[in-house]
Design goal:
This protein is of the alpha+beta class and 152 residues long. It has a single domain, classed as 60s Ribosomal Protein L30, Chain: A (2-Layer Sandwich), CATH 3.30.1330. The chain is built from 3 helices and 8 strands, in the order αβββββαβαββ. A hairpin with a 4-residue loop joins strand 4 and strand 5.
């Protein structure tokens, strides 16, 4: 019981000081008019220190604000990556600054087609990546990608 109390106290202290340190680093919302606006209560991206956390993007055309639903997985992937690129640019970054990506696919059988387009956006030193198949995505998109980028 004493050991659990110590661990609990340690975690509570770490959480408090971790929060203070995050606040000191300055949490800032990043918005790009060249990317689709958030379709819910979230931000396009959050910057803390030198790290930029981008929310997942689906294949919404920022001009029409509509999902390009009938598009191929290749076209949806391209649109998603262009949307992410627009948010990165709003904070002075590029795809080269991306260190991690998470890809959510409606159909993992389309991995090869997605990967071919994805590779054109990350030509050298591609980021770490996880890819998973999901039952459903917002607006019945075929793909969603979220990334983390770091300022040099």
């Amino acid at each position: 019981m004493t050991r659990l109390t110590f661990v609990g106290s340690y975690l509570a202290t770490w959480l408090v000081f971790g929060t203070v340190n995050a606040e000191d680093a300055g949490k800032r919302v990043i918005v790009s008019p060249a990317a689709p606006a958030a379709i819910g209560p979230y931000s396009q991206a959050i910057k803390v220190g030198k790290t930029l956390y981008l929310s997942g993007q689906i294949a919404i055309d920022p001009k029409t604000k509509q999902l390009i639903a009938s598009a191929s997985i290749e076209d949806q992937t391209r649109q998603v990556l262009e949307n992410l690129k627009a948010v990165l640019v709003a904070d002075g970054l590029s795809m080269e600054n991306v260190v991690s990506a998470t890809v959510f696919l409606k159909d993992l059988n389309e991995f090869g087609k997605m990967n071919e387009v994805y590779g054109t956006f990350f030509k050298s030193e591609p980021p770490a990546r996880a890819t998973v198949e999901v039952a459903r995505l917002p607006r019945d998109a075929k793909i969603e990608i979220s990334v983390i980028a770091v300022h040099p």
